[in-house]
Design brief:
Layout: H1 2-18, H2 21-61, E1 64-67, E2 75-76, H3 78-86, E3 91-106, E4 109-118, H4 120-126, E5 133-136, E6 146-150, H5 151-154, E7 173-178, E8 183-192, E9 202-206, H6 207-214, E10 219-220, E11 222-227, H7 233-242, E12 248-251, H8 257-295, H9 297-305, H10 310-346, E13 349-351, E14 354-356, H11 362-388, H12 392-397
Parallel strand pairs: 4-9, 6-8
Antiparallel strand pairs: 1-11, 1-12, 2-10, 3-4, 3-7, 3-11, 5-8, 6-9, 7-8, 13-14
Helix pairs in contact: 1-10, 2-8, 2-10, 2-11, 8-11, 10-11
Length: about 400
């Protein structure tokens, strides 16, 4: 067995040494591009999904959302509830919010958007929106008649929904009609761009201001809870329930329906592109090996005539195919980790759902490499097996 493998390796190496070097380099280059494509497509889709998940957590819902009890409109006794939540190890921030719809208008333009009331000091612990101001200043706890707008509401700054925006700047005064009929004028204190279209269509006012509008104290529509780590929301929810909290408690994933649809679509696209890439690799190697067996059929016949086993000849062609693929994978890894990945770290792609870079997972890279090696094995085996099926005379003299 070992001698057969050794002989197959010798035949493969001699064939490649005598082969056209330019053609071999081109084949290796093609294999490296196929491998880079397989890794790149999966990684960019994973990157978009990861960026979207982070945006949902960091700019909209944090890790855990607490809502009013069934058949109740508000969470009552918010201060007491917050004290219970803070006692749980791993909780790093809490933000009680009142959320309402309102009609915002400026001159002859108007539109309906969501308005959240926040305690800015608390909000900065559960979201990152304060880091993305593009004009003006962030809210403060005692602000009166001041409002913070996402850029899709204000307009300008390269927004995607400029056609429906108000066209306002910092310092302008806008009218806000709340769903309870109260109408107030607010000065635009700041404009932010969270790189997430859902967040950029929201407005924020201070908790103190909202209490005067709706006439409620120590109540909230929702409480956002920021935890030290992502992915363990169920563990925190279990602890909240064990503490006797009766309100509805949900992880951020419940609100990420759009993200789930995007993820499913990207997974399907990535699978299709991967399958196409592997098919191209198989066809490419098949044609190369098939052409080689045709051009060397007399040599194959002579090898068989002198007693070389068919399996040895097949293995020699499989080794050649594997050599091309393994070299292509090695060069592809260099391209990915030393060229493409650093470039995308410096220049992430901008989507309405956030800034996305490559998310390269070792297990995904390994899976792509193994798939390509299996494809090479199959593409090397089939044409060489077809070649040795003929009789020795037919192989040497043709028919």
């Amino acid at each position: 067995m070992f001698n057969n493998v050794k002989l197959s390796s010798f035949l493969a190496s001699r064939s490649m040494i005598k082969g056209n070097k330019s053609t071999q380099l081109l084949i290796i280059f093609i294999m490296s591009l196929i491998f880079v494509n397989l890794v790149f497509i999966g990684s960019i889709f994973l990157g978009v999904t990861e960026a979207t998940n982070k945006q949902v957590i960091n700019s909209l819902y944090s890790n855990v959302v607490i809502e009013p009890k069934k058949d109740e409109k508000y969470i009552s006794d918010v201060y007491s509830l917050e004290q219970k939540i803070r006692a749980v190890p791993g909780v790093v921030g809490i933000s009680a919010q009142y959320v309402t719809s309102a009609t915002l208008s400026y001159k002859d333009k108007h539109g309906a958007w969501a308005v959240r009331s926040i305690n800015p000091d608390d909000e900065m612990k559960v979201s990152t929106n304060h880091n993305f101001l593009i004009a003006g200043e962030y809210l403060s706890r005692l602000d009166d008649n001041e409002i913070l707008l996402g850029k899709e509401i204000s307009g300008g700054y390269g927004g995607d929904l400029d056609y429906s925006s108000l066209g306002v700047k910092v310092g302008d005064s806008i009218d806000v009609l709340f769903d309870n009929g109260v109408k107030r004028s607010f000065k635009v204190k700041g404009i932010f761009d969270a790189n997430f279209i859902q967040t950029n269509t929201m407005a924020y006012i201070s908790q103190k201001e909202m209490e005067s509008i709706v006439g409620l104290e120590d109540k909230a529509s929702q409480i956002l809870v920021k935890t030290r780590d992502n992915g363990n929301e169920d563990r925190y929810i279990k602890q909240f329930l064990e503490m006797g909290i009766k309100e509805k408690i949900k992880p951020w994933t419940v609100y990420a329906g759009m993200v789930k649809n995007i993820t499913n679509s990207f997974d399907m696209i990535a699978m299709m592109i991967t399958a196409i890439g592997l098919f191209v690799a198989v066809i490419t190697i098949f044609i190369i090996v098939y052409t080689s067996t045709i051009s060397k059929r007399k040599q194959i016949g002579i090898l068989r005539a002198v007693g070389i086993e068919e399996s040895v000849i097949i293995q020699s062609y499989i080794f050649q195919a594997l050599f091309f693929v393994i070299c292509g994978i090695f060069i592809g890894l260099i391209i990915i980790f030393f060229a493409i990945k650093p470039w995308f770290i410096e220049h992430p792609l901008k989507f309405p759902i956030g800034l996305a870079s490559l998310m390269i997972l070792p297990e995904k890279v390994s899976m792509n490499a193994i798939s390509l090696i299996i494809a090479a094995f199959a593409a090397g085996f089939i044409p060489s097996w077809m070649a040795v099926r003929k009789t020795i005379i037919d192989t040497i003299w043709g028919d």
